[in-house]
Amino acid sequence: MSIEVDEVRKIARLACLNIEQPALEGYARDLSRILQLVAQMNAVDTEGVTPMSHPFEVNQRLREDVVTDTDRRDAFMAIAPASADGLYLVPRVIE
User: Fold this and answer.
1) Which terminus of the chain has fewer Cβ atoms in its 10 Å neighbourhood, N or C?
2) 87 beta partners
3) DSSP one-letter code for 90
4) How many C-beta atoms surround the C-beta of residue 8 within 10 A?
């Protein structure tokens, strides 16, 4: 599949991108190459190939799910400019 300069211009307009005229031809060429690569990959027979989440057989090292920080809510509420009933009070921004 090949992308023409007019198509790149249309896509750029839809994406609100400002691409200068001299660069449009390069974008069209690069996008065409990308689509050719995608077509090549789609042509590969993957029947019977098990999908993998990672190309290497590795195990993820996990740590225990334990609390490491103490509850400092009261300390943070004490230094807030305004608070009430455990909530931070902020100025109204929408009338």
Assistant:
1) C
2) 84
3) -
4) 22
35, 3 Cβ separation under 8 angstroms: yes
Q: Scanning the structure block, which residue is given the tokens 């929408």?
A: 94
pTM of the model: 0.52
Q: Domain coordinates of the chain in residue numbers?
A: 5-43
Q: At what angle do helices 5-14 and 21-43 cross, to 10 degrees?
A: 100
Handedness of CA 76, 82, 85, 88 (dihedral sign): negative
For 9-19, b/e burial (b = at least 16 CB within 10 A) is beeeeeeeeee
pLDDT digits (tens, 9 = 90+) for 70-82: 999 999 999 999 9
pLDDT score at 47: 92
